[in-house]
Amino acid sequence: MKMEDLQHQQMGYDRAATMFAPDGHILQVEYAEKTIRLGSASVGIVYENGVLIISDRRQKDVLVDSNSANKINEIDEHIICVSAGINSDARVLIERARLLSQQHRITYDSAPNTESIVREVADIKQQFTQYGGARPFGVSMMFAGINGEPVLYTTDITGNYLKYNANAIGENDEQIKKLLREKYRNGMNRIEAIKLALDIFREIQKENFSIDRFDAGILEKGTLLKISGAELERV
Amino acid sequence: MKMEDLQHQQMGYDRAATMFAPDGHILQVEYAEKTIRLGSASVGIVYENGVLIISDRRQKDVLVDSNSANKINEIDEHIICVSAGINSDARVLIERARLLSQQHRITYDSAPNTESIVREVADIKQQFTQYGGARPFGVSMMFAGINGEPVLYTTDITGNYLKYNANAIGENDEQIKKLLREKYRNGMNRIEAIKLALDIFREIQKENFSIDRFDAGILEKGTLLKISGAELERV
Amino acid sequence: MKMEDLQHQQMGYDRAATMFAPDGHILQVEYAEKTIRLGSASVGIVYENGVLIISDRRQKDVLVDSNSANKINEIDEHIICVSAGINSDARVLIERARLLSQQHRITYDSAPNTESIVREVADIKQQFTQYGGARPFGVSMMFAGINGEPVLYTTDITGNYLKYNANAIGENDEQIKKLLREKYRNGMNRIEAIKLALDIFREIQKENFSIDRFDAGILEKGTLLKISGAELERV
Amino acid sequence: MKMEDLQHQQMGYDRAATMFAPDGHILQVEYAEKTIRLGSASVGIVYENGVLIISDRRQKDVLVDSNSANKINEIDEHIICVSAGINSDARVLIERARLLSQQHRITYDSAPNTESIVREVADIKQQFTQYGGARPFGVSMMFAGINGEPVLYTTDITGNYLKYNANAIGENDEQIKKLLREKYRNGMNRIEAIKLALDIFREIQKENFSIDRFDAGILEKGTLLKISGAELERV
Amino acid sequence: MKMEDLQHQQMGYDRAATMFAPDGHILQVEYAEKTIRLGSASVGIVYENGVLIISDRRQKDVLVDSNSANKINEIDEHIICVSAGINSDARVLIERARLLSQQHRITYDSAPNTESIVREVADIKQQFTQYGGARPFGVSMMFAGINGEPVLYTTDITGNYLKYNANAIGENDEQIKKLLREKYRNGMNRIEAIKLALDIFREIQKENFSIDRFDAGILEKGTLLKISGAELERV
Amino acid sequence: MKMEDLQHQQMGYDRAATMFAPDGHILQVEYAEKTIRLGSASVGIVYENGVLIISDRRQKDVLVDSNSANKINEIDEHIICVSAGINSDARVLIERARLLSQQHRITYDSAPNTESIVREVADIKQQFTQYGGARPFGVSMMFAGINGEPVLYTTDITGNYLKYNANAIGENDEQIKKLLREKYRNGMNRIEAIKLALDIFREIQKENFSIDRFDAGILEKGTLLKISGAELERV
Amino acid sequence: MKMEDLQHQQMGYDRAATMFAPDGHILQVEYAEKTIRLGSASVGIVYENGVLIISDRRQKDVLVDSNSANKINEIDEHIICVSAGINSDARVLIERARLLSQQHRITYDSAPNTESIVREVADIKQQFTQYGGARPFGVSMMFAGINGEPVLYTTDITGNYLKYNANAIGENDEQIKKLLREKYRNGMNRIEAIKLALDIFREIQKENFSIDRFDAGILEKGTLLKISGAELERV
User: Fold this and answer.
1) Over D164-207, what HEC string results?
2) ipTM > 0.85?
3) Phi/psi at A3 (5° precision)
4) Residue G131 in contact with residue G95, Cβ under 8 Å?
5) C-alpha–C-alpha distance, residues D157 and D32, integer Å
6) Contact across the interface for A17 and G68, Cβ inside 8 Å
7) Chain B: residue nearest C13 by CA?
């Protein structure tokens, strides 16, 4: 810990999401980001004619129903989402995203644009970093969607979001992104994209790597494919 | 207690459910989890054609009406629930679950899905860990239900929930779960499931074990059976 | 005082009903329970064909109107209630219980179930231990009622309630309960029940015991009898 | 000051009416009671066919209008009220009592029962000791009324109230009550009751006693008599 | 400063108007009273057939419009008011009093009673000493009115008010009141009353006394006379 | 800094606008007044048949649009306003004043009285010094208007306002007012008034004085003239 | 850090946006301004027949979609906006500006005035520096628009805004403004304006300068041109 951080703690600048520290940081938001690094990792990749998310569920607990442990959530038939951080916070935002998506279909009789769903979720997150009386949502979220072209978005704790070609959230995200920057290239096909994600996990997890730990959501025009474990190597 | 925990206490990161500690934890939620470990244990098991919960009421007080001490609550004719932690907190959530179930029956003229009841209760719990002005619900809950197939869910303090094959809440939950992982297998019948639960309690409680301490709720298609004490060995 | 309690006080975990201490306790609720032990005691007993509450009004103040000092309150013609703790808090909850009872009679044209009145009072109590901006109700309450069969309920500060065969609230409640456990038996008649209660008070109060200190409320099918002092020995 | 009190102060248990101290007391309420002892005393006595309040206005200030210094307030033609503590707090509650009384007359076309007026005032007081965001009313009140029979009530800071044969509020209330307990007897006539009150004031105030300091409100069936000073000795 | 006061400050009993100190005082109210003593003084006197207020505007600032510095405010044609303390607080209450007065005239087509206007202003003041979230009004107010007979009222910070024959507010109020007690007598005529007020100011201000500093409001049946400076000696 | 001020800071009396210090001051209001002295100065003068405000915009920034730097705001065609302190606070109040003015014109079809606009702005300011949950408006404002006769008002932080013949706000206001008291006389004409203001600025700013720094708003019956810089010497 | 700043921190004057420090500053606002200096810089320039903003996106991340990294936002077809500070805060205000612009078009069937959009955004910002319960928006914004003539506005954290000929926000803003003051002249054409902005960035960023880092928004009558990178040198 840096000397400056310690001083800021002793002065109490880190006790409320509504307070700036003297250097302009909002420390409660920075603390909440630590929570995200405690969650297992997910990787998203846009490829030639689709977009996929591969997510690590960590070790398998025989007591837990295996579908229940799958972290890849369907928002609409053309949008999926994965999160890192506090699971119940994520569920609340995912339920909201589903509701927004259904409302759009009812109102306009068409599939909602992925970015407008992402923006609404991100706006909720922003409010919880600015208004008092509640804590920020302790969750980072990655959305994959198909609206004509495949798209991938990530929102952080503050409610900022960007569009990505490929990205990672959760533990070791910086290492994974470093490897993605080296190895990602436009125009990969689906098999290459899956292989890239699994190779990166294999490189980082080393002896802990096991194909059983992984679930994937794969979106291509008009289809959503959800597969897990050994199936991933058979696509 | 770890040095880091002590520092976090001295800095006051643990005074509100709306505050993150520098390492990303919400300490009020972690404290509330201690309350759950103070409550007596319950075990839930999904078996071949049903699901059961066996719950420890601890020692018998001659002054207390014996039905009143039974911790297994009926939410609907096909859903039961047991809790560990603050009893009055649990009652409030159970009353809510019953109301949601009745509303569903009135609105749709059909039995509600167990998971949707669980999710609504879990959403309430999540809110109490994020918004200020109230404390989190100090209670963990286990729901068993039959919707076509038998299901078992557990919600924690944060409002996270998962679907289980078998699980335990309350004191010694980690030990019980360890034994469940070893001994549970899919496709047990009802008698085997009851025996498994009682054997685990016998192994953990040792000389304090007494069949009089236990109540069971047993759900099979179209029937809910509530039995207690010696009856459990006669099923 | 235990070392741990002292540390919790110094850390401020006991300043709000909405805060958990590191060991999972809500200290404001535990402090409020001390208030209850400061109140004079009452004993409730279910007997063969009725239920009674005998309540200690302590010493007689010639300046106070004797009816006004009687702590046994009529909620409805078939429900009575006694409390220990802060008298004005109790009165507010008793007024609420009366109102609920009247509303039930008006809505359904029948006598309300005792337990549903108890549950509504208990739900109010629970809320005041969870939401900020107010303190918990500093009162324990014992309700006796006749709905077909005689029933006895006790609610604590947290809003938890149980159904009892016999119970005590107020000062020396643990000692009284110990004696009740030894001496209570099912199927006593009215005279035996009164004698049991007075014998226990005599044993505990020793030279301070005086029959003038006691009021009783006795519920049997269709009748409520309120008697005091020497009359108690003439029933 | 007791050592324990000092510790409670240093720990801050006495900073909010919504906080219990470790021994179960609400210290803000106890502090507010000190305010009451700072107010001048009033004595109330129920006699054979009436009830009276005699109130000390302390020394006479030539600048103050003499009616304005009279502390005996008329709530309705058959209810009077006197207070000790913060005068403006008392006025607010007295105005409320008057309004409730008028509303009763308009709604039911009959004189309100004294106790129901007292209870409504007491309920307001109770709320201010339980909810945050305001301080308790710093006032004790004595109500005398005639509803068929003469009645006398006193409410304390917490909103508790009792019915009395005779009572005192304000400075030296304990001493006055001790003398009342010795000298009060049922069935006194009006002259004896006035004499009793003045004799007690004379005994306590000694050389400071002066008949000019006192105002009286005397209620008998159908009449309210307000007299002051030397008139009191001519009734 | 007394030792006890210092301790109360260090313990923080003086930080909120909603908090009682251990001796029963509300310290924020007592501090606000200091503000009143910082304001310049006004004297009110009821005389034979009228009532007047004479007010000190202190030294004359050539830049300030002389009407604007006159502290005597007209509430209605038969009620005037002067204040000491925070000027903007006073203005808000004076505007309220004017509005209440106009509303009365519109509703009842008659001049409002002076006391009912005073009571409504005093009730507002009381609320600001009891509820949190705002500070008390830092102002003492003196109202003179003619309702049949001439009347004079003074309200303090707490919202208490009394009716006076003569009174003073603002700096040196205690000294002025001492002189008023010595020299005031009932049945003075207008000239004697003005002379009394000016003589008292002369005695207290000594070499700083100047007739130019004073404004007067003089109410007699059906007339309000506002005069200033040397005119005062020519009435 | 005075010893007493330092003690008040250490005791925390200066942390909220809703708190009085032991000497009766509201320190947050006094701190906000410092902000006003940080703003550049403006002078207002009532003359024979008009009123003018001359305002210092300090040094000219070539990047800033010159109209945008002009601090003299038009509220209505017959009312102008200038402020010192926090510019955005001032803008909010100026927008409010404009709205009030327009509403008056729409409702009554006539020009609003300058004082009623000033009073409404001042009432808003007062509220922000009394209620919690917001800080006071950190701005002093000077209003010039023509309603039949020319008028000049100044409101301070607390919401107090007075009518002036001439006045100054902003840096060095006390020095400017001292010079105004020496040199101002009733009945000056427009040229004399402009000269007086510029002479005073010249005397205070010495070598920093430059005619380019100044803007003026000049109100005479039916006309508003806004001029800047060298034009000021050619009027 | 200055000694005085340190003292203000230790005294806690910097913990809430609603608190003034003893020298009249609002420290939370000053801390938030640090956040702005952490953002990458943008330069705005009004030229002969248009206005442009050139914005630095810093280094290019291959994982991020290049449109998504472009910081120049379209509010309406004739208004663009760029920000420095917290990105999600900026997005919320930009969404609001777009909504206001659309509402204007729907209500009045014409393009909104740039300044009225800027003022509404600035008013929102001001409120968040005055009211409690939320933190200020940590963002500075620059708006360029064409309403007849080209205009450029900048709003700071407090909600103050000015109209500029040229300006900069974000890191090194003071250095950039210094260079703009030296080199900017009225009546430049588009090519000169782009060159001026890029030359200044080149001078400040030195070896880190790369044309790939920059995006531009160029508004001329009826057209909005958005270009990036090398294109900028080909305009």
Assistant:
1) ECEEEECCCHHHHHHHHHHHCCCCCCHHHHHHHHHHHHHHHHHH
2) yes
3) -55, -40
4) no
5) 7
6) no
7) B15
